[in-house]
Design goal:
Length: about 180
């Protein structure tokens, strides 16, 4: 199965489920207005969702309905940088490669448009940091208090990967796609 059959662009129709996932994951989730504003900028934003039927072994056995979403992610394309804005997987579905598939979709899009990939991640989220390291991002600093108004651990680790248009980065993404069986 190819990545584009598993991960599809987010639309406003997906927002009730996206926001339900966020409510499980964040003390202060994004509002519908924030998502609508992001989706209204297709020229410099990309938001995607993960569909469970193709991602999780036997999704129906796990209690998922065919149309139910299991995760979402987004990226803002800036001058020379693709800035990851969110990667969120339903707590019931973590550890199954869904976050990696979502991130792979964003990284591939970033490689077509930008030279760098960057994000902030909660300093107390080693699982997310490990995922981002897998994609070649490395810590470059700490932003103190970054999340203090979002109800999360206040500090963020800033991570980046530069020169993502180079052949070695493409090789990294191909290897990840093969490991995820998305090639």
């Amino acid at each position: 199965m190819t990545l584009d059959q598993m991960i599809v662009p987010m639309t406003s129709d997906h927002l009730p489920q996206v926001m339900a996932i966020d409510a499980q994951c964040y003390p202060i989730p994004w509002s519908r207005d924030v998502y609508e504003a992001e989706l209204a900028r297709p020229e410099d934003r990309l938001y995607v969702i993960a569909r469970p039927g193709q991602l999780v072994g036997d999704a129906n056995a796990k209690g998922f309905c065919p149309g139910q979403l299991v995760g979402h992610a987004g990226v803002a394309f800036e001058e020379n940088e693709a800035h990851i804005t969110t990667v969120t997987v339903s707590p019931d579905c973590r550890g199954q490669g869904i976050g990696a598939r979502l991130f792979l979709a964003l990284a591939l899009a970033a490689c077509r448009r930008n030279t760098s990939l960057a994000l902030e991640v909660a300093a107390d989220n080693p699982a997310a940091q490990a995922l981002y390291r897998r994609f070649g991002l490395a810590p470059v600093g700490i932003q103190r208090g970054y999340y203090k108004n979002m109800g999360l651990s206040p500090d963020a680790v800033v991570m980046r990967a530069d020169n993502i248009q180079q052949p070695d980065y493409a090789d990294r993404l191909i290897k990840i796609a093969v490991e995820l069986d998305c090639a």
